[in-house]
Structures are given as C-alpha cells and as structure tokens.
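step 4 of 6: structure.
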Amino acid sequence: MSTVTLIGAGQMASALTFPLFENGHEVRLVGSPLDDDIMARLREDNYHVNLLRTLHDGIHYYNCSQVKEAIDGADLIVCGISSFGVDWFADEILPILNEDVPLISVTKGMLDYEDGTMQTYPEYWQTKLPEGSKLRIYAIGGPCTARDLADHDPSFVGYCGPDFETLEWIRDIFQTDYYIISLTLDVVGLECAVALKNGYALGTALAVGIKEKLGDDGINHNNMKAALFQESVKEMLDLLYLVGGGAENIMFAAGDLDVTVSAGRSRTVGLLLGKGYTIEETLEQLKGQTLEAVVIATRTARAVKALAKRGRVSEDDFPLLMHVNELLNEGKTLDIPWKKFQKKM
Amino acid sequence: MSTVTLIGAGQMASALTFPLFENGHEVRLVGSPLDDDIMARLREDNYHVNLLRTLHDGIHYYNCSQVKEAIDGADLIVCGISSFGVDWFADEILPILNEDVPLISVTKGMLDYEDGTMQTYPEYWQTKLPEGSKLRIYAIGGPCTARDLADHDPSFVGYCGPDFETLEWIRDIFQTDYYIISLTLDVVGLECAVALKNGYALGTALAVGIKEKLGDDGINHNNMKAALFQESVKEMLDLLYLVGGGAENIMFAAGDLDVTVSAGRSRTVGLLLGKGYTIEETLEQLKGQTLEAVVIATRTARAVKALAKRGRVSEDDFPLLMHVNELLNEGKTLDIPWKKFQKKM
C-alpha cells in the first residue's frame, strides 16, 4: 500500500481516486484555491458537485492551506489542476515538494513561445524547479473522461516520463482491470498528442453542429465528420513530427480525438460554432465553464503561424487548424476549406 | 469532357456517378453478373434499389454482356465490383481492357498468402495482366459511404497509383466541391490502411454493442469505445509498417475507422458480437448481405499469425485483432483482453 496525494480536486483528479482507493492505497485529495465548494460538499457526504459522482468513503480531504500536511509522507504526488493553474502549481507547490517523491501530472495542455516552440507542462515545470532539484516529473495522457472512469468504464491511457522503472511502479499503483495503462518515455510525443487533440476535437465537432443545424434532412453526414476526423489525424501527425514526438503517439491523439468529439466541452464549442454561432455567442452560452480547448487551439495555431514565418512549415499544410483559429480569434464565419484538404503525399 | 466506364453497379460505383455526371462527363455504368435486379430498375427510372437513391438521368446503363461496347472509347475505366468479384474481374475484364486506358479501382480489401504476405488488389491484378500489358492500375481509398456521397455530403478520400501525372488527371475528372481527393504514390499504404480498418471497425464496434446490451445504465461508455479506437489505431499503424506502407496513411485508416464505426455492415457485425451473439447468430441475422469485414479481418489475422510463426511479429502485439479473430473463427465468446492492451512503447 502506498500513500498518494492528489493536488487539485477537479473532475479528473477526483476520478483517479477510484482506481487508487480500490487498489488499497491511502488517498489524499487536496483542493486547489478554486475548489472550496467541491471540498465542502466532499467532506459532507463524499459527493463531488462537478463530477456528479460519490467518491469512496475513506478518502482523506485537505484544503489548500493543509497541502504540506497532505504531502508529508506521500509516496507519489499527482498534479490534478486544470491548465489554468499551471503557474500556481509551479509557484506554490513545486517548491515544497520532496525531490525524492515522483510527481505525475494529469493536466493536459501546452505552452507556446514567440518563435513557435511548443512546450509541454512537464518540460515547463522542469524549468521552474528549485536549483539542483532532482524531482522527476511524469504525466498522464490519452482518452479518458473523468465520469466514465469514475463509473468503471474500461479506459485505456498512456503514462510517460523519464524512466521505465518508476513508470512501472506508478502503473502498479494505478492500474486496475478497468483502467489500463501503456508506458512511454516519449513525454513530448504523448503530451503534445493529447494537447493537440483539443483544437482538432473542436474542428471535428463542427460536423456535429452542421448536422444538427441541418436537422432531419435524410442525410447521415458521416462522411463529413470522417473527413474532418481524417484531416485532423493528418495535421496532428505533422505536428507530432514537428515537435519531435514519435508517430506511434498518433494512437493517443486519435483515441483522445474520438472520445472528445463524443463528449465534453471541446465538442460543445465546435458544435456551437458548427451551428453557426460566433465565438462570442458560443462563449456566452458556455459562461462559467473552463474552455481549455479554445486556449490550446489558439496556442497551437499561433505556434504554427510563428513556425511558418520562420519557414519551417506552411500554414497551407494545416487548413483545418487555421480555420478553427479564424473562428476563434479572427471573427470569421464558418466556411470549412474542404478543397484545401487535398494534398499530394 | 471524358468518357468514364464504371464496371460493377454496386452502391459505391453508382454513388461515384454523381460527381462524374455533375462534372459533365459521359458516364457508363455496367452491371456485373450479380447486378441484374439493380440494372433492371435503373433502366426503368434511375432508382438504385440498394443505394436507395435516384441516379442522374442521362447515365448510360449496360448489362454485363455489353461490357465491350461500354469500354469502347472510354478514357477511364473504374472497377466498382465488391471484393468477392476480384477474380471475376481478373478473368473476364482485365483481358479485354485497352492497356492505354487507365483503370482505377474502388474495391476495398486485400489477399493474404501462406507466408503471411498481404497483397492489395491493384498488386494482385498487376500479376494477372496479359503478358507485356502496360495497363496502369490506380485505386481509391478513404472514408466515404456511398449514400453520403450520393447525398453530396462533403467527402474526403485518397487516390493512389504509380504516377502523379495520371492521378492529377483522374482527380480533375472526379473532384467536385463536395468530393475532395488527396493523391499518393503509396498504393500499398493507402490500400492496406483502408482494408485493415475493416477488422478494426468490427473490433471498435464491439463497444457499441456492449453499450447497447447494458442499456440505460447511466454510463456514457465513451472511454470504452475510445479505448478500442485507440488500440485499433496502434495495431493498424504497426500493420502499415509491416506491409511497408508509410505512417502518413494512418490518416486514411483512422478516418475510415471513424466512418465505418458510425455506419455500415462492419459496424453491425461488431455491434451484434458486442451484444453477445455468436458469429453464427450474427451471420444468420445479416443473411443475404455481403460481409467483407469478416473476410478481411480473417485474412489480416491469418497473415499476422503466419508472420508470427516466421518470427517477424508477435501475436501479443495485436490483441484486439486476435480477439476479433477468436470471435469470428474460433468459437470464442466476447471477452475483450483489456490488460493485453498495455504496452511499453
């Protein structure tokens, strides 16, 4: 039995308590500064007001102010904050972590820089560690909605990090018969694959919105969705090569694309844009929800544009991403550039 | 304006008459020996009894006995037979074709040999050409259901063959604003990608059947489907490498997987097996339908087993395909080997 401390009590971190607790570990769940309402109710009856599921009785709850107590004696730390808390985590949590205790992050996303460099959060946090710290950072990616995981639906994800020895130890802590974990040392590949999928889930879900808007016209419109899915996989593979990730990570990108187009907020943004709403109207309808897909799609498009300026890629090779960016950031109306999808390969 | 002769009047060949006719070409549609009922009704009022759509008025219909007349003066021949007619096409049609007129095939599938070699139909037909024939064979792959194409839903496919010059000429003949075509010289890659997807569409659709059987249990089961989708993409990429196809063709495999899991007979086979029916019960329910997915999944699994015997691969690297094969050919009951999906990459 190990002691596992999860920092951030959002849906995914909280869903991860299911396999952890069922594997017999001591599970400590720490609310971030944004999680006060969640924690209050959890302490009452273990019900998670966003996940809409009741956690196992026996999980130890901590408020943010108790984080030092929560990490004391832990064998593994899990970062479960949203991508909007990445700097908070760097500033407030990284400095107090024991460098001998591995950290694994389930936060999906990435940063972009003016020269077009895309950076994963594990890489970013590595630069933020106290001087000389030997803290090893691992990460979780792949298609896994929190609610399905909490419901024990079979889920298949990827864990990545700097060495297989610790990864196998972490897998033993998490894996159950319904939560299956592949391991890879390709942190950039896995993390970028699952970050990139955000913009493309939004792009593919445009077809869902277009179909909904057309209503019952007697047409299945499966070809349209598959066309966007196919173009997404093509552009994601090109981006994977661009960041130096291995082609095999396209499995995570495609799997995560499938699940994200089926459910979730990225789907909803794409769906509303596909129905013809402007981005302002879309955001208005989704007020109060964290929309990581919008941020990450914007970052990816910005990186491609920066790389294109440097002559490393051509914007023409990413017509779907560019159109998503036009919808999100340039006030353009929906007009999928189908003809631009044609290529010579 | 060109003259295009389609041989085989099944759903896909007939759907292709829409872009061809709308682009102003003379379109000749030749029924195979199995298409007599289809042709009789088409001659009456252009209604296609399997496609369930009315073709454009002005298409020229030919019965099989008139095939020589139909190909006389054609600029392009399209092979639109099902995979069960591959040998008929080799024996009856190839010998009478003009070697200077390109042939493009929309027949999806592949053959396997005792040593585990997988062979695309264009490669197979190349071996069947009359001695010295210079006939060039091109092929069509990618996610495109016939009915959606007939309904002018945006569709995005791949055309492959030995040279870009003719491919671009063929694209000009077919492409419309709703039918978008990428080109590749990687015939093995594209054709295997879209053939392989059959077994995996069946494998991924197991989740659809399991969900249907569980009924309204309050669980979305999106993770389960994405897990199978992800494992499918992984195994398809490995198989692509194995046959010498380029990784970029995974876009076609994944796109085609998406559309096939959404609709079609491969989905139905997987769905019924997922609901717990035996393969015998499943085939009984689908009596009278051509089930190419079953044949192609069987061939793919047989090839992997043969290659495993020769030490070139391990069956353990294809757990989903192996389980699909157990369901189809070894009388096993449904028991998805989730744990076997875990890998070190």
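step 5 of 6: annotate
 - DSSP finds 14 helices and twelve strands in chain B.
 - Residues 187-214 of chain B form the longest helix (28 residues).
step 6 of 6: archive
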